[in-house]
Amino acid sequence: EWDWQKEVEQLASADVIVSIQQDDAVILKQMTPHAEVINAPMSAVYQPHTVDEQIEGRCVFIASDIEPNVNGLQWLLEAVWPEVLRANPSTTLHVCGSVCSQFRQTYHNVRFLGRIDDLAPEYGAAEVCLLPLRTGSGLKIKLVEALSHGRACVSTAVGVQGMGQLTDKAVLVADKPEDFAQAMLTVLQHPEKRKTMEAYARTYVVGHLAPETVYQPLVDWIHQHIQQSNPL
């Protein structure tokens, strides 16, 4: 049976421990104070889009069919989406990925596109990317991808785990249905706010998520370890 103590023992035997988000790095360091812990999250390369690609009122959710995504989308469609449509009836939602296979019911102004080969047009058309996750752990790849396309995001606290520094900058965070709906409307109804969030997303990706930035500490450690193991 796997328990906390066994995990600590296994971690302590490693030369280096690599985390994928800062929150995990803090916990791992607490578990193994004498171990080397390096945070190396998912990297991203900024993908530019032209302004005229965006479609007014377009929201996008992209996900696989694992349970947290299905649960989050169900919550979005049943508890949040009606509130958004009441305030802004022309809002549309495109859902992409295998998560679509778990939904048979139709929803007003919602299209289930399933798995598609090229997501760039969907990101390009979006005014806001959604992360309505209520459970889960680790770094959310869908958040990194949305940021890499320079898109404003609305997320629950779970969806932004490990990247909380983006809150109120590139990501609006809300956990209650009415607050999540209002956050979506804030992005959709205030173009200048959205553009500011998009600009921050772009700046953050270039400055903090570029591969050479994200992986350099790990590369440096590997080089140092090789030199120590094979001195001239």
Structural class designation: alpha/beta
Roughly what fraction of the amino acids lie in strands?
5-15%
Q: What is the helix fraction of residues, given as a range?
A: 40-55%
User: What radius of gyration results from the CA coordinates?
Assistant: 20 Å
Report the major sheet: 6 strands, parallel
Which topology of the largest domain does CATH recognise?
A: Rossmann fold
CATH superfamily (homologous) name of the largest domain: Glycogen Phosphorylase B
CATH class wording of the largest domain: Alpha Beta
SSE series? HEHEEHEEHEHEEHHHH
* Principal-axes shape call: globular
Name of the CATH architecture of the largest domain: 3-Layer(aba) Sandwich
Number of beta-strand segments? 8
Low-confidence stretches: none
The CA-CA distance between the termini, in Å, is 45 Å
Overall pLDDT score: 93
Tally the structural domains: 2
Count of discrete alpha- or pi-helical segments spanning 4 or more residues? 9
Organism: candidate division KSB3 bacterium
Protein name: Glycosyltransferase
Pfam family, one: Glyco_trans_1_4
